[in-house]
Design a protein that fits this description.
Radius of gyration: 17 Å
Number of strands: 0
Distance between the termini: 55 Å
CATH topology: Globin-like
CATH superfamily: Globins
Number of helices: 6
Largest sheet: none
Shape: globular
Order of helices and strands: HHHHHH
């Protein structure tokens, strides 16, 4: 049955192992790491603050839940892709734009480094970047404005 599963695009088995191992090492610090993420995100891009209207502690729990689900699905990306696509469409409705995904990746990687410490080496950092890039690509593509074939360039 494992042959039917598709791992995260662009990630090696070793990278998937590093992401799982590093996320497990965070343990009870996951929500705190998520709060660090939001602080860093707003520091990098203050305009992103306007995209969040609710309680950041609740947002942090949602981010933690999503990251946990992603980590659990690293070897079965086809299971997670539809949920990520739905999140991408939902986030586009909130005003998230394509450039925000790069900022979010930078802030998550930074927050993970803060939570994990010295064990967050270059290989682990690159493994997380690969995972977050694949995730961002699905979300960004799903949230992109859809154009119909008859709304292309004007003729004449």
């Amino acid at each position: 049955m494992a042959a039917d599963h598709t791992p995260v695009p662009g990630m090696s088995a070793e990278q998937r192992r590093l992401v799982r191992q590093s996320y497990e090492s965070i343990g009870d610090l996951a929500v705190s790491m998520s709060l660090l993420f939001y602080g860093r995100l707003f520091e990098i891009d203050p305009s992103a603050r306007s995209l969040f209207h609710g309680d950041l502690a609740q947002q942090a729990r949602k981010l933690t839940d999503t990251l946990s689900a992603i980590v659990e699905s690293l070897d079965q990306f086809e299971i997670m892709a539809p949920r990520l696509a739905a999140l991408g469409r939902q986030h586009a409705g909130y005003g998230v734009r394509p450039h925000h995904y790069d900022t979010v990746t930078t802030a998550i990687v930074w927050a993970l480094g803060q939570a994990i410490g010295a064990d967050f080496d270059l290989a682990t950092r690159e493994a997380w970047r690969a995972a977050l890039t694949a995730i961002s690509n699905v979300m960004r593509d799903a949230g992109a404005p859809q154009t119909s074939p008859d709304h292309g360039t004007a003729s004449g």
